Amino acid sequence: MEPEGEVLNPSPFPGQIKFGCGKLLVTGQWHHLTVTVAKEAKKSCIMAAYINGQMLGSAKMQYLQPLPGGCISMDPSSFIDVYGYIATPRIWKQKSSLTWRLGPTYLFEEAISVETIEVITKLGPQYCSNFQAVQLQGEDQCSDRIIAPLVAEDRISFGINAVCSSLTTVQDIKSSYNEVDGRLIAKEIGINSRDSSTPIFLAKNIAGHLSGSLRTIGSVAVGQHGVRVFQSSPAATSLNFIGGPAILLGLIAMARDDHTMYAAVKVLNSILSSSPLSGKLMRHIHGYQLLSYLLKKKTQLLNNRILQLMFSLVGTAELGFESSVIKNYSAFQYVLCNFELWMKAPENLDLILLSHLAEILQSSRDAGQNIAIAYQVQMVPKLVFLFNDPEISSSKITVACTILSHLLQGYFNTRDVLRWRDRIGLFLVYTLKPSSVDENQFYLDSVAERPTE
User: Fold this and answer.
1) Does pTM top 0.90 for this prediction?
2) Which of 82, 289, 348, 357 sits at a 20 to 30 Å CA gap from 116?
3) What is the domain partition of the chain in residue ranges?
4) Contact 18/66 with Cβ under 8 angstroms?
């Protein structure tokens, strides 16, 4: 990128392009920005931009020059030192109220695919590595599946992360790396090239040890131009070091009204959905059993919004839009399948829950996996146990029988039938009319009440 007026290269393609993204930006939240450049013939390229994995647009423009300025000779003695800005260069600086933060930054020597962009976006700003063995939240960490690198080692030019950084000086940079880098850094910051006292923040190139050609040493923060250094630490990650999910369970225990209960459950759902470590801590402290106990103690505060958060926690909330596979086994086993908890809740939450379970067990795409999980958590005996309630409505019985039908069709086991035959028998006996009722007369009356055609 060159200042306007310095290099005049007549070309039918523009030297810069703009994409509108105002509607996708939210103040105070991290956004993942990706720019890909695919070279074409005739000194042109296709540039595409993505925000949080969503494509903003693509356009054809002039391809970047191999070397800046008018240097086109391949003689090694004519090479010039090259460095770049991840910000606005001083020559183009203007006063602005915009304040922004830069998280982990990478430069690849190839245009990555949309699928790779989606995976990198899901890793979030706390990821600190080189995409050689990536596993996302919810994947089996102990599986024998061979994990292919997202980007080849030799195609990663540099990676910058504040986690891998240190305070150094110009003299230390010269002795540890090379004279040229030390001189360029001193010139940019505006200090003497022999300075050995001014602290310099150096974010080292985390890809420097990978195989491939020589790489840059990293980047430095130019402090006098308004740059401040920080390490990105999302709230979900920070919470794990001061108590983790146990603190949020405490908030649920202290809830006195439905608004406070909803807020506490929503925060817990957000933390568990965004932090794999929080999920591990939740299982370690048997947090889902505790959550079920707390919700049972505060049944009168439950409502449909809280039930929807439980669906989201399990991973089955977005039916028809995303995969409805049960992702959180523990939450499904100890919270959703605790029917005693939901049978006493207001707003007919038990019927809503049973209808939701029937939907995820009969979805054409993920039904098999969900039925297997439901069978493992002993849903069959839990459903049969519901029939002991003399006040159970016919609508609930119908939905429960539908769920039982799907489960027994997928995993029919005679031992289950024999084990629960007494309860099923008692339920069938309960549906019979008392001995004081004449069954023949009852049948004749029902026939007489039928409308004639």
Assistant:
1) no
2) 82
3) 235-430
4) no
